[in-house]
Specification:
Length: about 180
Amino acid sequence: MARLPDPMAAPTPAAAELYRELAARRGRIDGMYRGLLNHPELTRHISDLGTYLRFGSGAFPADVRELTILWVARQLNAAYEWVKHAPPARAAGISEELLEALRTGREAGKLTEMQQAAIDAAGYVLARRSLPQDLQDRLLAHLGLQGLIELVVLCGFYQMIAGVIFAFDVPLPAGAGEPFV
């Protein structure tokens, strides 16, 4: 297994300071962010972008954001992302029925126009293909230009996070079961 060492076993001053900052903002630091504290400067930038995309932008509704994150997680079989984002998705109003459809890879069922457009766009991002003009136009109508850009970056961000999680065998949070068995 290619796990990173625990930087908090003998933290550098920079890692200890960033750990305190992140813990104050996020509640606790485990999993991927804890491992990344081996590189505090990079971790700060990753955390800042993730925090902005999840909490700071306001460019699109929480249900669309969390649905998109979970859809990306499922496409990548990124169990860690799924486990971390299922509770915020529920809090944002995503139904258990929809979560179960996504988790099991079934057709998502009835989605709002914006939810469907966001998932469609995520599919193009993951396939590394250009968005069709009609899809881009629909997203622009719902999200505006900045929201459209943020949606694409959000998809890429969670692809990057999945890469880190897979590369360093980041375990699921304590007590969490594998969602995709």
